[in-house]
């Protein structure tokens, strides 16, 4: 399939490729399964009953649409662009992850699957999956790196209360990448009855496109809400990127609006120059991992290197393949923010707007604090506030040297 | 005729199935790993799979994961792996035992597929088994492998149905590797009946040899597979013997290499005990 000229929104092709990125690099055992999934998803996509059920759940269960909030005090402080926050942290379960999970779990049910597995980093996708599985009465197993189990303990308990089994993964660096390896290993052994609910726009085709489609509700709402608020489209979009699902959900509906500047913010950890970061696009190069070709952090040989970020949700050495393609096409700018910058932004939003942002979203905010002052006052900037920061409170307290609890 | 094709023709003439022995290159260190490699043909391995350790071996169970981690820690690289094969061909004078590299596609793609195939062929490698390169993506590899004279062994699984099998076979040369269970390496084992049914099913589609692997741990299980398949592939049980040859500090004990090779011999005896008609 030749992509329609002048459109950034027609991918992937029928083999799941965005340019040279994406694809289906999985073990043969899984190949028939992901072909089935693709077929089932394509049918569901055009089935009014499926879409009706999903849209009912999104509004009555998850609480959509989420508000587009004009952050007046933040705007005044930054002294430039008019900053709007897309309040996806107000969704049920506290992040954008529920948008995708409701879609996938509905699909799992439709396909007759009787068990759901998921990987999680910060625990937000795990909590969302555990939630949807509780709602639909489907057994759920969440794989989580043991390092993340420690640094995101509130979410671990939340998943357990929701009836999910949390399996700590000790292999490798015991973070998100290792959780994904373990989920894939489980899936190979259980594929006959199990649905793998991937949390981001990565993995083998059709996951990157499917997760994107489910997350596009974010950008579609922003289009409508900004028209209502300002009578025109936004000028600038900013979102944080680990795997890149909240960013893709905001960006994709605007990719063909040439006047909209789009910026993705990766996690620079201790600084790109230190090598201890999670910025695959800035500091990596294309390779093949977890079912797709995309930018990866890797050594000369192709061994995957460990990502580093204060934010468990961004601590991943890869990125969704469509982001890799958008980078190469130059449609989206990709920048990065360090741990320290994110921590500072985290505190700023608490104080100025009374909102505790997730450490993931704080990376986007850190870039907004740099970018907004350079833009004119009539520049409409939308930042995706993809998650709330309650889960991060213990970790932030520890970083700030504050003892809580006792 | 390639080494792989010749070897299976010989096995057929000898009226027996073969043993495909897997070790991870560089496990527990490059020097000892080479000693094991050198000893495999005499211990009864008919074909050798040399694993290329990867940081994220998604299709492998704990045994092969740990073997790869030991090797990576000991500094294994693709170049050292090629050197091992080159030395094997030169020092042992063994020009008959096929050696296949088994692993994940990223290591091949980072070297450049064309260069990888050329370098592998020059070192004396006969084939590649890349677990995360299904037929849907095999177009990237096939022309370069063909040009370099490297066989491309693809995998079929219990989930690969009649409709899909021809698509897999289109890219296969040398032999077809049948993954006998749903799962990672070295975990579950298939029943003899399941192996028989699947091999018969596959043989209806191809004249290529069918090698069965995953979950074969004992000489008896190897014999059971040998009754139906053209060869039994065994990995986890062998690399577990490498682990057993390490002391609790991870240092190799003096009997590590003989211990591994004795086990390979026991597996080979199991396979060779089965007469084929």
Describe this structure in words.
The complex is a heterodimer of chains A (406) and B (277). Chain A is of the alpha/beta class. Chain A folds into two domains: 17-59 and 96-211, Rossmann fold; 65-94 and 216-399, Rossmann fold (3-Layer(aba) Sandwich), CATH 3.40.50. Helices cover 42% and strands 18% of the residues of chain A. In chain A, the strands form three sheets. In chain A, strands 3-4-14-9-10-13 form a six-stranded mixed beta sheet, sandwiched between helices. In chain A, strands 1-2-12-11 form a four-stranded antiparallel beta sheet. In chain A, strands 7-6-5-8 form a four-stranded parallel beta sheet, sandwiched between helices. In chain A, helix 14 crosses helix 15 (359-371). Chain A is globular, with a radius of gyration of 19 Å. Helices cover 46% and strands 13% of the residues of chain B. A nine-stranded parallel beta sheet of chain B has the order 5-4-3-2-1-9-8-7-6. Chain B is globular and about 50 Å long.
């Amino acid at each position: 399939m030749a992509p329609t000229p002048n459109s950034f929104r027609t991918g992937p092709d029928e083999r799941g490729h965005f340019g040279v990125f994406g694809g289906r690099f999985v073990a043969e055992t899984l190949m028939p399964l992901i072909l089935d999934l693709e077929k089932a998803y394509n049918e569901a996509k055009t089935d009014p009953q499926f879409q009706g059920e999903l849209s009912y759940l999104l509004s009555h269960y998850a609480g959509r649409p989420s508000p587009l909030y004009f952050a007046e005090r933040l705007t005044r402080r930054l002294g430039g662009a008019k900053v709007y926050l897309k309040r996806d942290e107000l969704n049920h379960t506290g992040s954008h992850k529920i948008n995708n999970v409701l879609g996938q779990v509905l699909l799992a049910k439709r396909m007759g699957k009787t068990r759901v597995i998921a990987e999680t980093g910060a625990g937000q996708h795990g909590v969302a999956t555990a939630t949807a599985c509780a709602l639909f009465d489907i057994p759920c197993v969440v794989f989580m790196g043991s390092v993340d189990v420690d640094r995101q303990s509130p979410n671990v308990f939340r998943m357990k209360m929701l009836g999910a089994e949390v399996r700590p993964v000790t292999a490798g660096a015991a973070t998100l990448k290792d959780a994904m390896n373990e989920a894939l290993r489980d899936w190979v052994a259980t594929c006959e009855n199990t649905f793998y609910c991937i949390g981001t726009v990565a993995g083998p085709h059709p996951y990157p496109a499917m997760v994107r489609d489910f997350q596009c509700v974010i950008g579609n709402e922003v289009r409508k809400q900004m028209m209502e608020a300002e009578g025109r489209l936004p000028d600038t979009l900013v979102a944080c990127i680990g795997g890149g699902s909240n960013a893709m959900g905001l960006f994709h509906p605007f990719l063909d609006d040439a006047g909209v500047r789009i910026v993705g913010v990766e996690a620079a950890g201790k600084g790109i120059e230190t090598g201890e970061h999670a910025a695959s696009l800035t500091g990596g190069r294309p390779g093949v991992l977890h079912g797709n070709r995309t930018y990866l952090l890797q050594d000369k040989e192709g061994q995957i290197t460990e990502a580093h970020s204060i934010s468990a949700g961004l601590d991943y050495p890869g990125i969704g393949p469509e982001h890799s393609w958008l980078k190469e096409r130059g449609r989206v700018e990709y920048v990065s923010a360090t741990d320290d910058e994110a921590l500072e932004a985290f505190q700023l939003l608490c104080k100025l707007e009374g909102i505790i942002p997730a450490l993931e979203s704080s990376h986007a905010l850190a870039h907004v604090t740099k970018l907004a002052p350079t833009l004119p006052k009539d520049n409409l900037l939308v930042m995706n506030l993809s998650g709330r920061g309650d889960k991060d409170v213990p970790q932030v307290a520890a970083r700030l040297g504050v003892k809580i609890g006792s | 005729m390639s080494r792989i094709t010749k070897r299976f023709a010989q096995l057929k003439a000898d009226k027996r199935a073969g043993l495909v022995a897997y070790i991870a290159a560089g496990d527990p260190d490059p020097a000892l790993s080479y000693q094991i490699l050198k000893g495999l043909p005499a211990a009864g391995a008919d074909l050798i799979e040399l694993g290329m350790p990867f940081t994220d071996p998604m299709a492998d169970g704990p045994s092969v994961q740990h073997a790869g981690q030991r090797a990576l820690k000991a500094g294994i690289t693709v170049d050292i792996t090629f050197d091992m094969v080159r030395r094997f061909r030169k020092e042992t004078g063994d020009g008959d035992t096929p050696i296949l590299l088994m692993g994940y596609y990223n290591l091949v793609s980072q070297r450049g597929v064309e260069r990888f195939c050329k370098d592998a062929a020059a070192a004396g490698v006969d084939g590649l088994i890349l677990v995360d390169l299904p037929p849907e993506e095999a177009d990237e590899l096939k022309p370069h492998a063909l040009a370099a004279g490297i066989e491309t062994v693809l995998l079929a699984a219990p989930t690969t149905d009649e409709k899909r099998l021809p698509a897999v076979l289109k890219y296969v040369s040398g032999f077809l590797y049948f993954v006998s269970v749903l799962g990672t390496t070295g975990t579950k084992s298939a029943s003899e009946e399941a192996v028989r049914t699947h091999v018969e099913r596959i043989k209806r589609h191809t004249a290529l040899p069918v090698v069965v692997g995953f979950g074969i741990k004992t000489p008896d299980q190897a014999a059971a597979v040998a009754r139906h398949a053209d060869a039994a592939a065994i990995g986890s049980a062998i690399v577990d013997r490498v682990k057993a040859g390490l002391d609790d500090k991870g240092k190799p004990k003096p009997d590590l290499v003989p211990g591994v090779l004795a086990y390979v011999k026991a597996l080979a005896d199991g396979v060779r005990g089965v007469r084929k008609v």
